[in-house]
Amino acid sequence: MAQANEDKSMKNLYEPPWRRIRFIGIAGPSGSGKTSVARLIVKALNLPNVVILSLDSFYKPLTIEQKQQAFRNEYDFDAPEAIDWSLLYSVLLELKRGRKVDIPIYSFHEHDRLPETSTLFGASIIVLEGIFALYDERVRSLLDVSVFLETDSDVCLSRRLNRDINYRGRDIRGVLHQYDRFVKPSYDNFVRKQSLYTDIIVPRGRDNKVAIEMVIKFIKRTLSVQSQSHRENIDSLQQIVPTIPNLPLNLVQLRQTPEIEAIKTILVNKETDADNMQFYLSRIGTMLMNLAGDSLIYEEKVITLHNGNTWKGLHLAKELCGVSVLGSGGTLETALCRQYPNVRLGKVLVRVNQITNEPSLQYHKLPRGIAGTNVILIASQLTTSTDVLMATQILVDFGVPEENIIIVVYVSFVESIKTLAFIFPKVTIVTGFLETAEEAVMGKLNLEKTFYGC
């Protein structure tokens, strides 16, 4: 029991960057410049993993009667009760756990939530902005820093007039009526009290450049701490993993026949031209997909033969999806599609910061319903880079069970396989060539460049 607890503790050493997500809350009266300040933060950071989340997305769906009131400018959107706090809290909690969430889209023209949603996943910093961003105690408990914007009421009114008339299709009389009846009383009764819970109060709202720069510096420090933490995670794993006995290892390697050794000799030969490189890499890719097919789960299927008789055979027990790690997995896509013509494809792009060595999710497009499928994750190499590790974590965060994931790569380092198997012991790894980092021959090649000839 003690050994099991120790292993579990060591496994928790590793967390992807999006499991250490930071929340910044920006509240203030309507028209104080919350969205503008949020955009300034994103622009200053110049990072793809900083996301603005508007509280407006979490307005409750309206009944028919409430919609009629809204079109007459008689529905109070500036009351805390208009916000779906339970949904907002559950979404933030799921993001904190590193999971994919669906964000509702609210239409101010229709005064209702739209049927479609937007997907949010992989952010390191989320800026939550809205008049009540600091109102709910549960939401406040998740915030790492809170900001309240104080702005002159006349300035707020002029900005609200411009926004509601030009962007939300309102008329000036309706906006003024709503402001006097709902907006101003809401500020006095609810919005202003949020300043009691804030870390930073910014007088003059978005016009206070000094205070905004303070907020930006805080976020930059947070990102720096995250990068250091991720490096420490990886370093700790690389030291611990080799010392663990009986590490579970679901490894399938291409049988090293004289033919395979001859192909490897061609691939590592500096004199081999691009056409031959493509031909032999494609040949190895086909062999790897055959091995991956043997690792899939099949079930019996009864079919009717041409002569009318029935025959009992096999077919895949689950639908198959292929996910390519952009920048390397494309070299195996042709082999995958040739083996399984009906496979649905997805892509992920993980970039590693050359200074901090921290990977970040730049792009993902995964097939709908991927959680209930078998997934073949393809990349050219499983070596010192953490892109395959990150991509595997993304699949798990999207609900794909570890045992349903098969990683297919041309070449793997023994050390990297052990690290990945330690974190994901039920994942199957299919590889053509197995090397150590010190003795690497294939692992030192840029297979994408040699495959595409550029």
UniProtKB/TrEMBL annotation:
CDD domains cross-referenced by the UniProt entry: UMPK
Keyword Nucleotide-binding: yes
Matching SMART domains: AAA
Metabolic or biological pathway, per its Swiss-Prot or TrEMBL entry: Pyrimidine metabolism; CTP biosynthesis via salvage pathway; CTP from cytidine: step 1/3; Pyrimidine metabolism; UMP biosynthesis via salvage pathway; UMP from uridine: step 1/1
GO terms assigned for molecular function: ATP binding; cytidine kinase activity; glycosyltransferase activity; uridine kinase activity
Transmembrane segments: none
Name of the top EC class for this enzyme: transferase
Catalytic activity, as annotated: cytidine + ATP = CMP + ADP + H(+); uridine + ATP = UMP + ADP + H(+)
GO biological process: CTP salvage; UMP salvage
One Pfam family recorded for the sequence: UPRTase
Keywords, sorted A to Z: ATP-binding, Glycosyltransferase, Kinase, Nucleotide-binding, Transferase
Stored InterPro entries: AAA+_ATPase, P-loop_NTPase, PRK/URK, PRTase-like, PRTase_dom, Uridine_kinase-like
EC number, as in UniProt: 2.7.1.48
Domain AAA+ ATPase: 20-171
NCBIfam families referenced in this protein's UniProt entry, alphabetically: PRK05480.1, udk
UniProt similarity note: Belongs to the uridine kinase family.
Identification of the protein by name: Uridine kinase
Organism: Schizosaccharomyces cryophilus (strain OY26 / ATCC MYA-4695 / CBS 11777 / NBRC 106824 / NRRL Y48691)
